[in-house]
Amino acid sequence: MKYWLIFCLGIGSHLALAQSISFRSIDSLASNANYAQAIQQVDRLLSNSNTPSADILLKNKKAELLLAQGNVNEAEGILKNLSVSDRFLEAVVLSTRGKLNLTKGRFDLAKENLESASNLFTETQQSNSTEAIQCLASLASYYVATGKYNQAEEFETAALQLKRKVKGENSEEVAASYNNLGLIYLASDPDKAIEYYEKALSTYQKIHDANHPKMAIANTNLGIAYNQLKLFGDAINYFEAAKKIWEKIYPNGHPNQSIVLRNLGRAYALQKNPKAAMEYYKQAIAIYQKAYENKHPDLASTYNELGAIYLGQNNYDEAITHFQLALIANSPSFQSEDIKQNPSGIEFYNPSVLVYSLNLKAQALEEKYLGKTLKLEDLKIALNCLYSSDSLIDEIRHQSSDENDKLALGSRASEVYEDGVRIAMTISENVLRPQPYLEKAFYFAEKSKSAVLQESIADAQAKSFSGIPPALLEEEKTIKSTIAFVTQKLAQKPSEQEVQQLRTQLFNANASYRSFITKLEKEYPNYFNLKFSQPTLKVSEIQRTISNETAVLSYFIADKNKKLYIFQITSKGLKAKTVSLPSDLDRTIKGFTNSVLNSEFKTYRKATNILSPLLLPSLPISIRELIIIPTGKLSTLPFEALATERIKGEDFSQVAFATQRYAIGYEFSSSLLMQKKDISEAASPSIFLCAPVKFDEQTGLSELPGTQLEVNTIANLFQGRNKSVLFADANEVTIKSPEVSSYQYLHFA
Predict the structure, then answer these.
(1) Which of 118, 178, 595, 638 is the most buried (most CB within 10 A)?
(2) pLDDT at 681 (0 to 100)
(3) Residue 674 and residue 537 in contact, taking contact as beta carbons nearer than 8 Å
(4) Which of 707, 747, 710 is nearest to 727 (CA)?
(5) Residues with Cβ < 8 Å from 608, sequence gap 6 or more?
(6) Would residue 253 be called left, alpha or beta, if left means φ above 0 and alpha means ψ between -120 and 50 degrees?
């Protein structure tokens, strides 16, 4: 084959040079995943190149190919060493750097690179060039990765229009845009996703033969979309078509075939045909085992799905066995089939799959206890699974540099916390010493409220108060991004040679991170304490910080079993109460809130007589202060307006309001309560108090003379620093003044 490079003499534009380099055969090889041969061609052209501009374009192309091949470090090394003065070439290189940072998960840098490149393409009047179109497509990928689907659609649609103009309707590039648009719409509008997937398939049919890998991929995408629409017959037809293609290409079996077999199993499982589903799952497992032996995250996922079918048939032991096999498949060194054992939280291919396996194993053990054995040992093993899962979730949050990823993790984490509360409470009700298990239940309830918020607050405090230079904070972000990226690559179970390289990279990145933390601990101890130290909150610590007259009431709603758990902490101990939720709880809460706002007594009495005994446990007579830690739908409820006695009267004057007996405050979580206690003890307390007392006639509000006495009384409690504004001075201008923010407490009467 002849390799050639044409130089357009007399054309000063580097765009002309870019267009003149023959990348057609290179791109053809890349489209069929023959990256090694494509790189060889680029190297051959580089050896014959004699201009700096040609060198830049060829090296940029090599970086693109290395990225596609998964050699991120080598690609990054090439791009770092490219020095560009021409603005068009700068745009080309910036665009590739953006793709590099997308691959690494550095979405902040990717956005910066790609937007700069796009602006340069516009400034050089090359918005319709192939390179500019690729930049638009990369920006669309950025918006998909960050969950901004409207913007992703905007950029991908723009890229599609330009691809049609430059490459033609029946091109590989246009088909790629159709696939990407299908992905964008899959979650929100499966019907529209199918339209784009069908267009991609139609285009591939025109440019590839019937047995091309792209045809199998297109059929698989359509099958997944139809599965989501519960049109299982159509889904199965597409999966079968993909299966036939892979069987022709790989008659001895291939992991790509297993992907289709898994999806066939899923389709039959959703159709309530467990026998057929199990057969396909077992076929997929056999191919995975042949290709990867017993180690691969996709193998783990298949074990999970097969185990779930056994669990649905109440075959608890088989289900637990398969979930244990999933743990083994998803961990490099874990080999134990003993169900009491779980892998280390730092060794995994795919952490999300590992969390799911641990959750399923715990669920199966709980169902085995309830449906077969009534052995507490089963519940204790299940609880250990959830502790392992909880630790792993923390690890994933620490490694992730993207807040959307952390929030997306919340759904699965919520299941872990709910299961942990329920199982710990069940054990506490069946042992002689319930206190340790009550504390475990409280631990999971607390984690459900504070995990993501606590980490965000800790990070913000660290950056605000520790004086860390921005360069160091950026270094931390880069290291975490590298760890997350390499972990993701390992989850794809690459070749043995690549595994060794990636594990070396992960080892070095983790070593760098440990050194980084040690450096912060030594040079910036405040930063370390605020951001990295996450001690487990103990009930005894809360007890030491509250008075004998204070009770902390922490609420947790378990949606699975429709239960409300109320944890009551006083200086004397921890109690927990479990109550069944009324079926009309949402309507009752809404009626209660509206009746308070509108002073509608009959509705208030009915709702309060339901909610008060439900939400206010029996408390010692010495308790005068309540700290409420609500959850979910209870977060909008004004607990002050609940009643401490059943209402029998006919108006509000006959109600024993909770606020008449207790001073009531609120917190998001016990962890935040403890933080505020620490801050208040370290700082001299100060307060700003505001009471208009009298109101203009047009407002229709009554005079409140008692508020003046209220403000003066509270002010006397803050001898260090207080300020009261009364009557006309209590106005909007005053309370919005910068001075107000300097006070620790604000009180509006």
Answers:
(1) 178
(2) 52
(3) yes
(4) 707
(5) 592, 641, 642, 643, 647, 655
(6) left
